[in-house]
Amino acid sequence: MTLVSGKIVCITGTSRGIGRACALEFAKYGASSLILHYFGDQVTEGEIQSLRLELENSKIKVIVVPGDIGDPTTSTNIVEKGVAAFGRIDVLVSNAGICPFAEFLTMPHATWERTRQVNLDGSFYIVQAVANQMKNQVPQGGSIIGISSISALVGGELQCHYTPTKAGILSLMQSCAIALGKHNIRANAILPGTIETDINRDDLSDNTKREYMIKRTALKRLGAPDDIAGPVVFLASELAKYVTGSALLVDGGLFVNLQ
What we know:
InterPro entries: NAD(P)-bd_dom_sf, SDR_fam
Radius of gyration: 17 Å
Shape: globular
Distance between the termini: 40 Å
GO molecular function, one term: quinone binding
GO biological process, one term: rhamnose catabolic process
Number of strands: 7
Strand order of the largest sheet: 3-2-1-4-5-6-7
Keywords: NADP, Oxidoreductase, Rhamnose metabolism
Mean pLDDT: 95
Order of helices and strands: EHEHEHEHEHEHHHE
Family: Belongs to the short-chain dehydrogenases/reductases (SDR) family.
CATH topology: Rossmann fold
Number of domains: 1
Low-confidence stretches: none
Structural class: alpha/beta
CATH superfamily: NAD(P)-binding Rossmann-like Domain
CATH class: Alpha Beta
């Protein structure tokens, strides 16, 4: 399938979860090359190499770039290595994020600081770095997708550090749509609902909590990473060529279900 045929795609946080699913979905729909960022510790090293092998077996060109996304030099390195390998970047999926659930009143300031560094600062750094590449390449332009969250719209008792960062990503995409439109760069946000990934494994291990979240959705199931990957590919494709500054809620009907 050729929905994103020939496109060169950069994705942050690809070792597992939504980022990994996005990499596989872009390969499925015709992307030619993938620039895959991952954290770079022993665990993510093994995960990213298995993903790389799976993609290369599908004849997709892949480079992997490790680094702490909260460090601005990581974003510079991602772009430099991606462009050196493939010449340009057509799509960015800013996905890397963490959510260490914590009580607000006793939360160490270091937890707030680290969550903000990874989720919001990291998004800013990679979006700015890739946008400058998209502005300068010929032909100019591209598509930027920020992975925000339903938490940008609603609160969570153990997420007082997390929800502001996801609201910030939504706001970043809205402002970038305005700032970058003149360069033919589109910027949109995806707002996932409750998606089963490592980020919420412990939280959803409580069966009462899990069943409550399932019942809250209109579709009566939790989301899977590939439920997010499809909408991401759509926003990257020419089907969405007049879509910018949008916020696409992908939550199985969780937000609209008052009861």
